[in-house]
Amino acid sequence: MVSSVHPSVPCPSSMRMPLRLLFAPLIVAAIALPAHSRPLRVLTYNIHHSEGRDGAFDLHRIAEVINATSADVVALQELDQGNNRSGADVFQLDELAELTGMQGYFGRTISYQGGEYGNGLLVAPWLDIVSAANRPLPSPGGGEARAVIEMGLSWDANPSTAEFTIFATHLDASNQSNRNAQASFINALASSSVAPALLAGDMNSRPASESYATLATEWNDATNIANPGISRSSQIDYVFYRPDSWIVGQRGKFIIDATTAVASDHYPLLVVLEVPASIPEPTGATVGLILAATPMWRRRRPPFRRLLPPE
User: Fold this and answer.
1) Residues of the chain falling short of pLDDT 50
2) Cβ distance 219 to 240 under 8 Å?
3) Alpha-carbon span 151 to 190, nearest angstrom
4) pTM, whole model, 2 decimals?
5) Residues with Cβ < 8 Å from 62, sequence gap 6 or more?
6) Helix (H) and strand (E) counts for the chain?
7) How many CA atoms lie within 13 A of 303 on its CB side?
8) Among 42, 30, 70, which Cα is nearest to 282's?
9) DSSP 12
């Protein structure tokens, strides 16, 4: 069974990490919003455990890149959590949550050098996290364990029901049969629900690969194919969406500048989507109800949380 460790539940000492209550004000304009007016900025970024091309470990540089995008949801890959490579007292996901003012969720894939290593999600304070699970991915060919975070998110007046789901992952880097199986597993997860969904991460799958073709049977690629910012034939980082009712306001393009050129061995990819027709937009009246009926703690960003796959 997938387990979720909340800050209020003690962890075993070997798995304990600093937990910070990080609060950010939720500012909402009390005006009526027309249909399809709310953009959702989605970023995927393989941060290479914050080690840049210059050999420096610099989380502030990674946070600078994320903050410059004003992203609402950020899928992160190759995060170190309390291991010897980055520092036993360095927990990269919750430090990035603090530096960006976002909600942070870590999904472990492996134990590594006395700590952990895996994927993460950063979520803007205005989005409610309804559910989250860290699901192990199949690896029939053996090799390093992989996982996918599945998270239900809400942006309407009822924070207990999810309007869409995001999947965040990092597929196998060396074995095509593993990537094929992992892509099929994610497809099955997504197709079991009619809810709108996003998939973001490092797929280690070029557009001509079999695993990309597998994903394309269930997902739409949000990349600006004509001008992605890098060679399209070598692309392995993606944001996908389903169903077709998502409106793509800005197709995905890799952010290439003086900072991203050195901060990691990957470039971040930003996509701007808009609300699918099936998701109602909050109106001015609804916003007023949110502020009037929501306790003060609901208006602040929940603390960092940590997700563990089944043992």
Assistant:
1) 1-36, 281-303, 310-311
2) yes
3) 11
4) 0.81
5) 45, 47, 50, 96, 263, 264
6) 6, 14
7) 12
8) 30
9) P
